[in-house]
Amino acid sequence: MGRGRYCARQLTALVRKFLDDRTFLPVNPYGDWNQSMLIDEDLSLDINLYLQEIGKDVSAKKVVSFLAREEVKQKHGITKAISERTARRYLNALGYRFRTAKKGQYADGHEREDVVYYRDHTFLPQWKALEARMENWSKENEKEHGPRPDGKTVISWFNDECIFYANDRTPRGWYHKDSPAKPYTKGEGVSLMIGEFVSAKFGWLQSPDGKQSARIIMKPGKNRDGYMTADDIVNQANRAMDILTEWYPEYEHIFIYDNAPTHLKRPDGSLSARRMPKNIPKEGHNWGVEVTKRDNTGNLVHLPDGTTAKEKIKMGNACFADGTPQALYFPEGHPRASVFKGMAYILEECGLVKESKLRAECKNFKCAPPAIDCCCRRVLYNQPDFTHIPTILENACNTRGFRLIYLPKFHCELNFIEQCWGYAKRIYRLNPPSSKEEVLEKYALAALDSISLAQMRRFSNRSQKFMDAYVKGLNGRQAAWAARKYKGHRVLPDSLMDDLEKAKIT
User: Fold this and answer.
1) Cα dihedral across residues 437, 444, 202, 240: positive or negative
2) Which of 178, 218, 418, 498 has the fewest Cβ atoms within 10 Å of its own Cβ atom?
3) Are 406 and 478 in a shared domain?
């Protein structure tokens, strides 16, 4: 019959029983099999609604407990409980799968109040003022732009850093079913950090002959090259400006950085109300800004135990409303010469006598929005001379006639170099594993060089759609949806708002 031995044994047993007792006949179980409760459409609908209510916390136990509720049993005529195994089959039949959740567009923190304010009132106006003079590229690698105003063509250079690890290899591949398990190296292995500039016009920032480059290559770690500092960032920017000044003077170049602390570092002694005391320090005491101590050559000074030495310096001057300098320390000839004045005294000098009577700060400086005059620290914090303080990087760029723009926090989708990193890492993971540092550097640089200019322009096209979505006033989630739906268009259509309304995205 083409069946197995088990079937043959069962047939033999049935025949023997029939020979012993002619009244014995096997019963055909057809029609007596159990049916799944999910054939009841009302029950399936109720289970689906329940699973939607609990959101991400779906489990077989939750389904078991739901079907064990008295009101559910009475409504659907359920007489006995189901097992977790049955519940898992129900979940599978309803379209659920036990797997790792799919990752969509990163959107954490996009709608934080301070982030939205900076994006709408600082970043987007700066970008829109320059966008008309930028060259845009379609998905097919064709140049696109509308009416272009007079002036130099603007080239936007996006900056970022990426770390490659020696043991970072793809975990999936084709293996024979009988292949044995192989020992593997624990941990990520040695690392290599690469810092780059990229533009859709030229690709990686380098001279036409490739001999000069703004690329930074370092081995991060406490006992290796250390970590990226603000000085390293400024040195890289200066190298980039040297190349652009020499080889591409016919363009106007804009540097675009993210909101990393090393990019936002201000000069030592810059104005800040965060740590100021409210009153004049007691006799024999003074207040200053604690900074890292350096010797005459600019190198860090270390203590015998290996830690970095610290010292206190005076904070720089503020400004009155008319632009004249306001010293924060009492002048020579004053009984408390060179002593910090305190926030209350500084506010009184500015004519803010009522505000000087406020408390020093709200608890943990978490003032209830939209209050701007709830405490002395908040009042000073919002003064123009305290808010518009250029960073070290801005000073370096402005001195040489280059402009710098900071991306809004959390908005990595606006920086298409992130997609270049992802593409490079995919290529890098295809290489055979090696723990040698020179091999790691060779593979990483080869992966970066494998990205074509056409591919970079496609990445830029995707980021441009996100930029266009934010210009239209969409939030982070809506922008991700719009950029995905209109992936074939460089500019999002004006009918986008109607489409969002139809899709009920709020």
Assistant:
1) negative
2) 178
3) yes
Q: How far apart are CA 285 and CA 312, in angstroms?
A: 12
Stretch (H or E) spanning 443? helix 437-449
The whole-angstrom separation of Cα 195 and Cα 217 is 7
pTM of the model: 0.78
- Express each pLDDT in 316-370 by its tens digit: 999 998 989 999 999 999 999 999 999 999 999 999 999 999 999 999 898 987 8
Beta bridge partners of 312: 290
The DSSP secondary structure of 365-424, one letter per residue, reads G-PPTT-SSSSHHHHHHTSHHHH----HHHHHHHHTT-EEEEPPTT-GGG-THHHHHHHH
SS3 147: coil
**Domain annotation covers residue 119:** yes
DSSP state of 491: S
The answer on 117 and 202 residing in a single domain is yes
Q: What is the rounded distance in angstroms from the CA atom of residue 250 to the CA atom of residue 492? A: 31
Instruction: Tell me the C-alpha distance between 455 and 448, whole Å.
Output: 12
Rounded Cα–Cα distance for residues 380 and 125 (Å): 26
